[in-house]
Write a structure and sequence with these properties.
The protein is mainly alpha-helical and 121 residues long. The protein contains four helices and no strands.
Length: 121
């Protein structure tokens, strides 16, 4: 188990709850509320996914976990920044996070399909 991955998954879970609560109770602007809710949803989902991967004996699980952490950070934090008034160009970061998240799911898929297929002498 990677303690760093576990700690970052916990941090992402914490932040997802905090930003989700802020969206529910502290924001009146409809667009900002939507950005916060979307960011929190994706961040929470991938925090849990990364957490699960810390204990799975699947090939590429660690790679997938780190891609989930990086992708969630880029995706969610760019949306959070937009909600707090960052320039609209900040939104160009969001798809990079999405690509990292897709890469994580792809790595997990490859790992699931290839784990246990190694030939033994």
């Amino acid at each position: 188990m990677s303690r760093s991955l576990l700690a970052l998954a916990a941090l992402h879970g914490f932040l997802a709850v905090a930003f989700g609560a802020f969206a529910a109770h502290g924001v009146d602007d409809v667009a900002a509320k939507g950005w916060l809710e979307t960011g929190a949803r994706y961040e929470a989902l991938h925090a849990v996914a990364a957490l699960v991967l810390t204990s799975l004996p699947v090939r590429f699980a660690r790679v997938a976990g780190w891609l989930f952490i990086a992708g969630a950070a880029l995706f969610a934090f760019s949306l959070y920044a937009l909600a707090f008034g960052a320039p609209r160009a900040t939104g160009m970061i969001t798809p990079l996070g999405g690509v990292a998240l897709l890469g994580g799911w792809g790595a997990l898929l490859v790992g699931a399909l290839t784990t246990g297929t190694e030939k033994t002498p």
